[in-house]
Amino acid sequence: MLPILVRGGHLALYLGLWVFVGLLLAVLLVTQSGLGWGAAAAIALPLCTAFAFVCLSAWYVSRGMPLATSGALRIAATALTAALVSSGGWVLISRPWLRLVAARAPVTDPELVTATLQPLLFGFGVLVYLLAMALSYVLAAFEASQQAQRRSLEVQVLAREAELRSLRAQIDPHFLFNSLHSISALTSADPPGARRMCLLLGDFLRDSLALGAEDRITVARELALVERFLSIERVRFGDRLTVDVRAGNAGDCLIPPLLLQPIVENAVTHGIAHVLDGGTVRVTAEQVDGTLRLAVENPCDPDRPRRQGGGVGLSNVRARLQALYGADAWLTAGETGETWIVQIGMPAV
User: Closest Cα partner for 181 from 269, 306, 281?
Assistant: First the structure.
């Protein structure tokens, strides 16, 4: 169906434009035929309203002859033929109305006036139909541009979703490897602790899978999962690991699930594990001027062997932030004294 007929508002606007065309035709009739303004308007406005619906056929002609696949000569010939046929038909069905108005107009020879008006209307109709054809091609080009832009956006969204699924798929094996490594370390030194850790790990994996299936979760739920993970690691490290988790005023803000998980894993694996006296893993969240700020701090050994790059965890988190928020999000990681700090900023929603 014609787009202009789908909504009543579009049709009303279209017919309103044809009222303006009718007024132009009335001016032409007054200047070329000697009719008065009343008779000219009585002819022009009804006939232009009827021709408005005839010109809707230009939309079908333009769709049947796309610019991209049809030659210019073929398009011109088809447009001219359609204009001649449409205008001729319009003049033919208009003759009874022309005779009726001319007979009631104050003119000496109504038949002569009618004969004079027909070629005038025919030429006007051809010109207007060709303009309608040109407008149809312009609208078709605009519609094609909009569709191409929409397809491009859909491709970008699908690519971003695929990237996010890939990144999240990398997080789960990375975490599971670290957890199994921790359990393995306990099996010989503390078998009851290893069994307790297996039970805690099962509960944690159930919660993480449930949260990981969602697109966004609250900061409060993410921090609760972080605390559950750290409770597992306490079985391994005992009093060497203490935890300080604070949601502040950002508990209801939404973030991607498991965003902090790799960072907290690194805080334990590459921080607490290498410090003889252990220390505190501190996780904080706050909302400042529309920005959500997350921070993970842990003690680090200044003399530890340095790793090349930021590791899988930080790389995944940075890539997820980039895919979701672009330039509106950031991640920094660095050492201050004997403390390693990872900070994240993103729009607070």
Answer: 269
Residue type, 159: A
Q: What share of the chain is helix, strand, coil (3-state, %, to 5)?
A: 70, 15, 15
Contact 288, 345 (CB under 8 A): no
- Right CATH for 190-347 from 2.40.128.130, 3.40.50.150, 3.30.565.10, 3.90.1640.10: 3.30.565.10
**What are the two backbone dihedrals, phi and then psi, of residue 100, each rounded to the nearest 5 degrees?**
-65, -45
Q: 124-137: per-residue pLDDT in tens?
A: 989 999 998 888 88
Closest by CA to 134, choosing from 122, 124, 142, is 142
pLDDT in tens, 211-260: 666 778 899 998 988 888 888 888 778 889 999 999 889 989 999 888 88
Rounded distance between C-alpha atoms, residue 24 and residue 334, angstroms: 74
Q: Roughly what angle, to the nearest 10 degrees, separates helices 110-189 and 219-237? A: 20
Measure the CA–CA gap between 206 and 209, rounded to whole angstroms.
Answer: 5
Tell me the pairing of strands 339-347 and 291-299. antiparallel
Cα atoms in the 13 Å half-sphere on the side-chain side of 77: 5
* CA–CA gap between residue 279 and residue 298 (Å, rounded): 7
Domain ranges within the chain, ordered by starting residue? 3-153, 190-347
How many Cα atoms are found within 13 Å in the side-chain-facing hemisphere of 58? 30
The answer to whether the beta carbons of residues 235 and 201 sit under 8 Å apart is no
pTM above 0.70, yes or no: no
Q: Give the 3-state secondary structure of residue 282.
A: strand
Q: Higher confidence at residue 143 or residue 87?
A: 87
